[in-house]
Amino acid sequence: MCTRIARQYKKSKHRTQDVATFAPTSAAPEKRLRFKTTTDASEKQIIEAMQKIASHVKNPTKFGKASKLAIQLIQAGSVKPGTSDHFFAILEAAMSSSTSCTDPSVRADYHALFSAAQDVTVCLSKKQKNQLTTWMIMVVDANDLYTDDSFVV
């Protein structure tokens, strides 16, 4: 529909009239990110999802969506001792991204992801817990110190 509007807009002599004529009357339905809970998804499916999230979390344009999916995995109880290494790979991928965790475009998403990751530390190894503690300082504490965007929760 949007491409049709754009084409009609470009071809039109009376641009404002055509845009008004072809504009959709209702807003598109909002897409929500949903993840199967542990009762719906097998461990294999969860691991595959975590691997896919880890590959997407490296991309700054996909980071917001990928981090929200990772948070949903935590909230659904999908991060368990059997899947914790794969979840930790998501965190590693996030920290290896070319975009800094304090970059304004992704700062809030990093903060949300690593704050949520604190809920699953019981599933991590001692080495992973220590690494997460270091990242928490870099992500959560450093981002909390930014006073220019106090509206970020």
Structure characterization notes:
- The structure is a single chain.
- With 153 residues, the protein is mainly α.
- It has two domains: 1-29, no CATH class; 31-144.
- Helices cover 57% and strands 0% of the residues.
- It has helices at 2-11, 15-22, 43-56, 63-75, 84-95, 107-117, 126-144.
- Helix 3 runs antiparallel to helix 4 (63-75), helix 3 runs parallel beside helix 5 (84-95) and helix 4 packs parallel to helix 6 (107-117).
- It starts with a helix and ends in a 9-residue tail after the last helix.
Structural class: mainly alpha
Unreliable parts:
1-25
**Strand residue percentage:** under 5%
**What is the number of helical segments per DSSP (H or I, 4+ residues)?**
7
Largest sheet: none
Distance between the termini: 36 Å
Q: Strand-and-helix sequence, N→C?
A: HHHHHHH
In the residues, how many domains can be counted? 2
Which of globular, elongated, flat, extended, rod-shaped describes the shape? Answer: globular
Measured as a percent range, the helix fraction is 55-70%
Oligomeric state: single chain
Mean pLDDT: 77
Search tags:
153 residues, 2 domains, 7 helices, globular, disordered N terminus
Helices, strands, pairings?
Layout: H1 2-11, H2 15-22, H3 43-56, H4 63-75, H5 84-95, H6 107-117, H7 126-144
